[in-house]
Amino acid sequence: MNIDKHVKVCLLMTTLAFSACLSSCGVNSGPVVVTAAPDLEPQDAAENPDIAPMSPDGPLFPDLTDVEEEDPIPDYLRVGTEHPIVAALQERLMELGFMDNDEPTEYYGEVTANAVKHFQRQNGLAEDGVIGQDTLMAILSPDAKYYAVSKGVKGDDIQQIQGRLYELGYLASADQVTGYFGDSTEQAVLKLQQMNGLKEDGKVGRQTMNLLYSDEIKPNMLEYGEKSEVVLACQERLRDLGYMTSEPDGTYGNDTTIAVRRFQSRNDLVVDGYLGPSTRVALDSPSAVPNGLSLGDEDATVKRVQELLNKYGYLVAGNVTGYYGEITENAVKSFQRQNGLTADGMVGVQTMSKLTGDNVRRAPANSGGSSSGGSSGSSSSGRGSSGGSSSGGGSSSSSGGSSGGGGAVISDSSGVSRLISVARSKIGSPYVWGAKGPNSFDCSGFVYWCLNQSGVKQSYLTSSGWRSVGRYQKITSFGDLRAGDIVVVSGHVGICSGSGSVIDASSSHGRVVERSLSSWWRSNFICGWRIFG
């Protein structure tokens, strides 16, 4: 919070307190009018036409822009209210952890009302989602406490926390996600705090809440290095679905981690490589999406398939890059023909099973493996021949701007317009925390859905995960952003739509909107990612 905001908050509180005093004395003072803060450095009014002279009849503080002069604050703020004070309240609720970070607005919607209910619950006020004088003073108070919940609390926010604890393996079963913070939830939080080096108090406050969605959190689940019958059963299921690239042995090694990450990506799960409860439930589900690698894919699974193709003589070592280009596609077709499979160039369950089995027919001795045209082959995505890691991708045919760096862009002349068209088609859809579409979204779920609908195979990432995705061309200067770029700010992410605008799932608006890339976005800017070149 900067000095100007502190001054404005103090003025708001002073005005409200004075109004309350007049009311208690029986003085009918009319509606509360918020006036502006004085300039901290006195200037001659004649030298600055924006500063009006002080007079009993004239405005005393005319330079306030956040709360317009002579714009009375309604007695009650509720859903549907539009007023400059709403933006200040949203910003304060975000600071206190009751709302997801976003550019504040003057509109009081359902998301704001829900955040107010949580604040009222924590502060012993009537939980009606309506801001009267008591709630307003409590929110603006410098002593207001950060969001925290503990045993005995119930609400939709508790259900969201429990869902994440279940995903991480700290809650044992889905039926413990109830919306009530009971003994099992407290024990789960204590275990999480213990394993992650936090103060063990069983409460979800600032540190614990921030940790829940960070990349540094340690889950309580099956992970690398473990060996058990449970691991073996999961490996066998992953093999049946075409994800395992080695024989199941009950040991959670590198191949298992790669297979799990690939499975999570294709089944709309948080991609962390751990076999937690939600991943295991999805794995056992009849509707689990099987693996399928095809032209344009890029990850560690592709690299492992390329290594196997190289082992059996279908691909030369220089083409083992992690990117599925035309050369890899041709090698797969050759393998399929040689092993009695349909030669479609895609690695599905049958091809993966054959490739990882014991009875594999090697490439004919005179074939020499696929090698022409570069290491990954040209394709519609325009990846170059230099290959690269599974996260960084190959070289790009476009530099993507002076601030670019890291991965590559996809050479697709219609990619930007397609992405923006998909994003605009969802304007007005409701903001729902954790939603990934198609009818409701949070900010990261919106970007995930739009990219995949535009033909970009992108796994789900939280807003913090977008800080270091690495796969695309990184933009480090706010001024270099252009249409089609993913813009990442503190706690939020959106899609640049051109002409200085962005489309995003906004918590402050309560829906998907297209709006200006204002100074708020600039001051909170972390990086951008160029998808299309």
Automatic annotation (TrEMBL):
Compositionally biased region (Gly residues): 384-407
Biological process annotations from GO: proteolysis
SUPFAM superfamilies, per database record: Cysteine proteinases, PGBD-like
GO molecular function: cysteine-type peptidase activity
Ranges where the NlpC/P60 domain occurs: 413-532
Keyword Ribosomal protein: no
Matching InterPro entries: LD-transpeptidase_YkuD-like, NLP_P60_dom, Papain-like_cys_pep_sf, Peptidoglycan-bd-like, PGBD-like_sf, PGBDSf
Keywords: Hydrolase, Protease, Signal, Thiol protease
Annotated segments matching region Disordered: 358-407
Signal peptide residues on this chain, from the entry's feature table: 1-29
Stated family: Belongs to the peptidase C40 family.
PANTHER family: L,D-TRANSPEPTIDASE HI_1667-RELATED (PTHR41533), L,D-TRANSPEPTIDASE YCBB-RELATED (PTHR41533:SF1)
UniProt name for this protein: Peptidoglycan-binding protein
